[in-house]
From TrEMBL:
Descriptive protein name: 2-oxoglutarate dehydrogenase complex component E1
Family statement drawn from the similarity comment of this UniProt entry: Belongs to the alpha-ketoglutarate dehydrogenase family.
Source organism per UniProt: Petrolisthes manimaculis
Cited function: The 2-oxoglutarate dehydrogenase complex catalyzes the overall conversion of 2-oxoglutarate to succinyl-CoA and CO(2). It contains multiple copies of three enzymatic components: 2-oxoglutarate dehydrogenase (E1), dihydrolipoamide succinyltransferase (E2) and lipoamide dehydrogenase (E3).
Keyword list, A-Z: Calcium, Glycolysis, Isopeptide bond, Magnesium, Metal-binding, Mitochondrion, Nucleus, Oxidoreductase, Signal, Thiamine pyrophosphate, Transit peptide, Ubl conjugation
Molecular function terms from GO: metal ion binding; oxoglutarate dehydrogenase (succinyl-transferring) activity; thiamine pyrophosphate binding
Annotated SUPFAM superfamilies: Thiamin diphosphate-binding fold (THDP-binding)
Range of residues in the leader sequence: 1-19
Length: 1018
């Protein structure tokens, strides 16, 4: 028999459904080839998929060349196969073959024990196993695998019975390819169960009929499990065991009564609001009342596993119910939100179904104290996800919870938003990043099978709304929301999964929406058939009460008593709420800072200057190679940078990177955690920062000098992020909400890209304190400047941030000794465009020195990073120095007040262009140039002071941005107000444009020339 014929014979006889990996290597034969794949190894991938057949061919070629070059068992196998024996008879197990590992399913496990046929398995004697026996067992294994992979597609997970995940699927189609070889009489035959299933429990073999029944119970009843895409066999086996083990959904009577009470409360809350506030929007939970018991079960189970704090985010649907029945928010506070009362404290407030809360309470099931926070959020669906993740990560960080054992994030979603909003995908991709992971999030989807008025078939391209979770290997548990006990099992498994593997998991609560999108919306306009069916359905509390009454777990009177007891609680709270005359926004704070505001002068900041010894120490460390420099090989270019930094230390000066580093280092010395996050921040987009040095020869060997300044310093976190703005900025916002004594910074790769995160900027950062009484000291570093790099690498859209500031351009604040800090206290955020490293140093430190927290929007330079004049002396940063809101003219013009003909106000990089052009034109004594470093809140007092110095000067605002962009529109009315409209300010700069910048270098240079001429024209 020639080689081709022999291989054809071998491979043709091989079964088509073998599911395992081969045991040996598949590369070239080295020395004596390894033993043939044992039966245990024949089970990881189909034999004819290419890799296994290639392996057999290599072994066969080696055997033909020299039978002694292969293992004895291969020799026996090829001799028998060449002689015509089928594979089952040709294989002989060598006595030294290793025992099968738990990750392999041995072929022997597929063979039956001695049966009435009298056929003995091959592993017990020399008698061969017939091809039919092998093929039948492989078909059974195929059936098992088919249910594990596709059972979810035919599970009864839809309480409406209208879901069509895949209309081509049916129970027969799922296993048709394997069932074709069996007839009715085979259903009673016993088959030995493979190690890839747990349906047998303690039994090793079962009749085929029983195997199928148990698989149906596991995968095709009220729960559909998607997990076989996970690339970890350990995790897949873990899930199999949770859902296949007989009796896996058992609940005792005490647990059932508790579940009924929770469902009753969930339903009763919505029914009560519907009666008392029938015309109010509340986005009720009717149709998915099981959400409340589900969340409480996740909390109970997780608490029993050691979790102490839960950070939650959710949309509007069911929020009031969650606030009341999960977080135990006082009912009176909720009811007063419907009363139309005036506020009794600061802030504009928000609609009731956006509000957050923070509660500390006793978990009565586990008898442990827990913390619960629901993060306030806007109507922008899913936008809160990264904020929750950032807050969770911060809590873990500050509690030393490096594995996420104590702090857990829970995210609730709607089905349409979960599949439709890109932020879901961005947030998922933070889940496994070292500096962003929360060590597993439990996601709960309230899948009411509709998005406002849009059917799922029109709102997503995937079978399930949860398919996005597959990208991070998160198991997905679809469950019928009208089967409460199935929901409880899924919640337990989800909590156990997160505790075991510290990875995300998704619970898909397939339910319905009994009313319209809100209570005054008519759903019959667009979903008449769906709502005709919904109106015939009993609510889940009635269904489950009837079930327990039938089982004898409760009586009808006991079920009524539970309803009546909760109704009484609601009525008493409703009566108490009527006596309230004010609502208080402070009752809804989601991130309280215990002790931060107490005992402080609200209008007194700490000094920002530091001792020169501190400056010198930090600068020297920042300019030095690692202590083990002889063993740590850095790039030659980096060594030059370090050398130039050391020269600056000797000269007592800092550039932009050094000024930033000294700000960070001095805060770290004071015990303030600093976190810098964003794309490429470790090196810096413009290769200026280099906070992390990389060994040129050793992978993952790094050195961070700022993390090694002092033995007792605070931790410094600098981390390159994923290529995302929306999710990462939201994450850092959440991180900053947790601890006011931390400097949290997000840097855009270019300022232009911040608008990808516009939702976080508009809905959270600019308005968060006003809506939710939530402060944050988050810093946004936005590289900005017109340098001929084109329209997408020039502008951070300064004008947009200024337009959203909350100061009135027509009202001149009263000047006083605390004018500057009072302005900061009153405004929603700070917008600055610094021109010196010294001012950068002070403004970063001021974020922590203030007795309150405000977001800082900071335009940062690009060309100034290496500009020889953009340096500051140590004298600008030592004790007694502070941030300069306006840097006045200090040259010849400052001494010639009466003779100055033009006073130019500008901000940022353009100052250096103006001074160079002024010097070249010889106008240094007749034109004064003052820099507005802090644009918002506007420095009325200092601008007026500068104008008073030059009474006869024409006042000009010069900017490099186009006229309809930059600071001009913000500055012009405020300068007029500062000068009491007695002097006029004119504009010098580029004309209006739809695009922020030209992409043509020649055009750019021509525009710069014109800008400078217009600014200096007398």
């Amino acid at each position: 028999m020639n080689r081709a014929r022999a291989l054809s014979h071998l491979l043709a006889r091989a079964p088509l459904a073998l599911p395992l990996r081969t045991l040996g290597a598949t590369g070239a034969v080295r020395g004596k080839a390894s033993a043939p794949p044992s039966p245990s190894a024949l089970a990881a991938e189909p034999f004819l998929n290419g890799s296994s057949s290639n392996y057999v061919e290599e072994m066969y070629n080696a055997w033909l060349h020299d039978p002694k070059s292969v293992h004895q068992s291969w020799d026996t196998f090829f001799r028998n196969a060449t002689a015509g024996a089928p594979p089952g008879e040709a294989y002989t197990s060598p006595p030294t073959l290793a025992e099968p590992t738990p990750h392999h399913v041995p072929l022997s496990s597929l063979a039956p024990a001695f049966s009435s046929s009298g056929v003995a398995p091959a592993y017990a004697s020399e008698a061969p196993i017939s091809d039919k026996v092998i093929d039948d067992h492989l078909a059974v294994q195929g059936i098992i695998r088919a249910y594990q992979i596709r059972g979810h597609s035919i599970a009864k997970i839809d309480p409406l019975g209208i879901s069509t995940v895949d209309e081509s699927q049916s129970r027969e189609l799922v296993v048709r390819n394997y069932m074709n070889r069996f007839n009715e009489s085979d259903m009673e035959r016993s088959f030995k169960l493979p190690l890839s299933t747990f349906v047998g429990g303690n039994e090793k073999s079962l009749p085929l009929k029983e195997i199928i029944k148990r698989l149906e119970d596991a995968y095709c009843r009220s729960i559909g499990v998607e997990f076989m895409f996970i690339n970890s066999l350990e995790q897949c086996n873990w899930i199999r065991q949770k859902f296949e083990t007989p009796g896996f959904m058992h609940m005792d009577n005490k647990e059932k009564r508790l579940l009924l009470a929770r469902i009753t409360r969930s339903h009763g809350f919505e029914a009560f609001l519907a009666r008392k506030f029938s015309s109010e929007k509340r986005f009720g939970l009717e149709g998915c009342e099981i959400l409340i018991p589900a969340m409480k079960q996740v909390i109970d189970r997780s608490t029993s596993l050691g979790v102490e704090s839960f950070v939650m985010g959710m949309p509007h649907r069911g929020r009031l119910n969650v606030l009341s029945n999960v977080c135990r928010k006082p009912l009176e506070h909720i009811f007063t939100q419907f009363a139309g009362l005036d506020t009794g404290d600061e802030g504009s407030g928000d609609v009731k179904y956006h509000l957050g809360t923070y509660q500390e309470r006793l978990n009565r099931v586990t008898n442990k104290n827990i913390r619960l926070a629901i993060v306030a959020n806007p109507s922008h669906l899913e936008a809160v996800n990264p904020v929750v993740q950032g807050k969770t990560r911060a809590e873990q960080f500050y509690h030393g919870d490096s594995e996420g054992n104590k702090v857990l994030s829970v995210l609730l979603h709607g089905d349409a938003a979960f599949s439709g909003q890109g932020i879901v995908y961005e947030t998922f991709h933070l889940s496994e990043l070292p500096e962003y992971t929360t060590h597993g999030t439990i996601h709960i989807v309230v899948n009411n099978q509709i998005g406002f008025t849009t059917d799922p078939r029109m709102s997503r391209s995937s079978p399930y709304c949860t398919d996005v979770a597959r990208v991070v290997n998160a198991p997905i548990f679809h469950v019928n929301a009208d089967d409460p006990e199935a929901v409880m099992h899924v919640c337990n498994v989800a909590a156990d999964w997160r505790n075991t593997f510290h990875k995300d998991v998704v619970i898909d609560l397939v339910c319905y929406r009994r009313n319209g999108h809100n209570e005054i919306d008519e759903p019959m306009f667009t979903q008449p058939l769906m709502y005709n069916r919904i109106r015939k359905l009993k609510p889940v509390n009635e269904l489950y009460a009837e079930k327990l009454i039938t089982e004898g777990v409760v009586t009808a009177q006991e079920a009524k008593d539970v309803r009546d007891k909760y109704e009484k609680i609601l009525e008493e709270a409703f009566t108490a709420a009527k006596s309230e005359t004010r609502v208080f926004n402070k009752h809804w704070i989601d991130s309280p800072w215990s002790g931060f505001f107490e005992g402080k002068d609200p209008l007194k900041a700490s000094p920002t200057g530091v001792h020169e010894d501190t400056l010198t120490h930090i600068c020297r460390r920042f300019s030095s190679a690692p202590p083990n420099a002889s063993d740590f090989q850095i790039h030659r270019g980096l060594q030059r940078i370090l050398n130039s930094r050391m020269e600056m230390v000797k000269e007592r000066t800092v550039d932009w990177a050094m000024g930033e580093a000294v700000a960070f280092g001095s805060l770290l010395k004071e015990g303030v955690h600093v976190r810098l996050s964003g794309q490429d921040v470790e090196r810096g987009t413009f290769s200026h920062r280099h906070h992390v040095l990389h060994h040129q020869k050793v992978d993952k060997s790094q050195y961070n000098s700022l993390a090694n300044l002092y033995p007792d310093q605070a931790p410094y976190t600098v981390c390159n992020s994923s290529l995302s703005e929306y999710a990462v900025l939201g994450f850092e916002l959440g991180f900053s909400m947790t601890n006011p004594n931390a400097l949290v910074i997000w840097e855009a790769q270019f300022g232009d890209f911040n608008n990808t995160a516009q939702c976080i900027i508009d809905q959270f950062i600019s308005s968060g304190q006003t809506k939710w009484i939530r402060q944050t000291g988050l810093v946004m570093l936005l590289p900005h400047g017109m340098e001929g790099m084109g329209p997408e690498h020039s502008s951070a859209r300064l004008e947009r941030f200024l337009q959203m500031t909350s100061d009135d351009p027509d009202v001149l604040p009263a000047f006083s000794s605390d004018f500057a800090i009072r302005q900061l206290s009153d405004i929603n955020w700070i917008v600055a465009n610094c021109s010196t490293p010294g001012n950068l140093f002070h403004i970063l430190r001021r974020q922590i020195a203030l007795p309150f927290r405000k977001p800082l929007i900071l335009m940062t330079p690009k060309s100034l990073l290496r500009h020889p004049e953009a340096k500051s002396s140590f004298d600008d940063m030592v004790e007694t120095t502070e941030f300069q809101r306006v840097i006045p003219e200090k040259g010849a013009a400052a001494n010639n007040g009466a003779g100055v003909k033009r006073l130019i106000f500008c901000s940022g990089k353009v100052y250096y262009d103006l001074t160079a052009a002024r010097k070249e034109a010889g106008l240094e004594d007749s034109i004064a140039i003052s820099r507005v470093e802090q644009i918002a809140p506007f420095p009325y007092d200092l601008v007026k002071q500068e104008c008073d110095k030059y009474p006869d000067a024409e006042v000009v605002w010069s900017q490099e941005e186009n006229k309809n962009m930059g600071a001009w529109s913000y500055v012009q009315p405020r300068v007029a107000t500062a000068l009491n409209h007695e002097r006029h300010i004119t504009y010098a700069g580029r004309p209006v444009s739809a695009s922020p910048a030209t992409g043509n270098k020649k055009t750019h240079l021509r525009e710069v020339k014109q800008l400078l001429e217009d600014s200096l024209a007398l």
